[in-house]
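Below is a filled-in request sheet from our internal design queue. Each sheet records the structural input a requester submitted and the sequence that came back. We keep these sheets so that new team members can see what a complete request looks like end to end.

REQUESTER: design group, bay 2
PRIORITY: normal
MODE: inverse folding
CHAIN LENGTH: 167
BACKBONE (tokenized):
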């Protein structure tokens, strides 16, 4: 079982992640950072997050591993897994970085196996229906980096905050 997964997410002031299977805010600078981190590596997403991608297609230039309990689910270009055992089997020998890319249920499921979290904090509060655990209050995790607030071209402030598991 790997313990070196990297969680990557954007969250608002309440740790909100999304609403109606969409991001709360599309921040172009952050989407570019997400693409730069994950490109040529492996991402794990839940079935709902996969279906929130453009045309419901896996992201190009990386291995997309999708969790679903639906044994008949197919998605060309993605690797489908149905439980943690199948997931471990799929990623155990992967040499690159493994990013946990949401949504809420997949972050919850895989946080115990993450060693790092790369968070984009959005300085605003949205009406959200999915949330990330508050990493500032989670025992066993500590903040290792907090960037300055930046103005996005999308009209919100955001900053990058990194966390690491300490136990
Ligand atoms: N802010 C961010 O960084 C960020 C990142 C990603 C997503 N999001 C947002 O998060 C929201 C989606 O989150 P969500 O929690 O509703 O959905 P999700 O985690 O993307 O997908 C949930 C689905 O994953 C499958 N799944 C979950 N746990 C599983 C397990 N243990 N074994 C097998 N399959 C499992 C199930 O698929 P089946 O129903 O097919 O069985 C489940 O319905 C959206 O609004 C999205 O935009 C935000």
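RETURNED SEQUENCE:
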């Amino acid at each position: 079982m790997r313990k070196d997964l990297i969680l990557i997410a954007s969250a608002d002031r309440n740790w909100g992640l999304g609403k109606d299977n969409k991001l709360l805010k599309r921040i172009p600078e952050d989407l570019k950072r997400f693409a730069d981190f994950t490109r040529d590596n492996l991402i794990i997403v839940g079935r709902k997050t996969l279906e929130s991608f453009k045309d419901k297609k896996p992201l190009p230039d990386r291995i997309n591993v999708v969790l679903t309990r639906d044994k008949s689910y197919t998605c060309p270009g993605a690797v489908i897994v149905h439980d943690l055992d199948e997931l471990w089997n799929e990623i155990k020998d992967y040499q690159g970085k493994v990013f946990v890319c949401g949504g809420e249920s997949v972050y919850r499921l895989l946080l115990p196996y993450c060693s790092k979290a790369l968070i984009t904090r959005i300085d605003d509060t949205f009406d959200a229906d999915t949330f990330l655990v508050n990493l500032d209050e989670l025992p066993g995790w500590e903040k290792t980096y907090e960037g300055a607030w930046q103005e996005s071209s999308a009209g919100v402030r955001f900053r990058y905050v990194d966390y690491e598991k300490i136990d």
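SHEET NOTES:
- The radius of gyration is 15 Å.
- DSSP finds four helices and twelve strands in the chain.
FILED BY: M.R.
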